[in-house]
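in:
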């Protein structure tokens, strides 16, 4: 009689565990629509006329912030995004872009190395330099931007390891 109850329990666990693990990962913060593109900043900068006016969700690491009288520009080294739209900095960079933001952006809130994700509208490319090298930057008029905290970057990543040793944290 007891053996009859085991298959349903195993079946239940087989379905419940993946849902429980998936529930730990944060949801994407920006919705993509029909005018969204998945091109990289490097692809957009090489042929900006093909992407003008389209929507993107890009993210990466802040390089610098420049403030002007009526807007600010944030240079970002782009990385692929994970399913929660967090920059995957362990992957190769996909180019650089400039996020154009209305008004003043406090540089201390977006220091070099801060990780961001933004949604915005593509507006061509601008020539510039990276060090001594000429570079074409994709331009994005940012509509919304999120700076990731260290805790947010860890969310949804399992804190499980397999090996020989002693559990717990040593401080």
């Amino acid at each position: 009689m007891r053996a009859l109850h085991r298959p349903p329990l195993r079946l239940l666990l087989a379905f419940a565990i993946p849902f429980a693990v998936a529930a730990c990962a944060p949801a994407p913060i920006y919705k993509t629509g029909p005018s969204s593109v998945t091109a990289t900043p490097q692809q957009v900068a090489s042929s900006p006329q093909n992407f003008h006016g389209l929507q993107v969700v890009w993210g990466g690491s802040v390089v610098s912030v420049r403030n002007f009288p009526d807007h600010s520009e944030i240079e970002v080294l782009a990385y692929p995004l994970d399913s929660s739209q967090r920059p995957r900095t362990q992957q190769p960079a996909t180019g650089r872009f400039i996020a154009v933001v209305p008004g003043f952006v406090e540089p201390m809130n977006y220091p070099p190395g801060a990780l961001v994700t933004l949604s915005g509208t593509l507006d061509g490319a601008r020539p510039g330099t990276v060090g001594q090298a000429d570079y074409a930057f994709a331009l994005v008029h940012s509509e919304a931007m999120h700076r990731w905290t260290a805790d947010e970057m860890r969310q949804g990543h399992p804190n499980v390891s397999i090996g020989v040793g002693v559990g717990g944290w040593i401080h």
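note: The mean pLDDT is 83.
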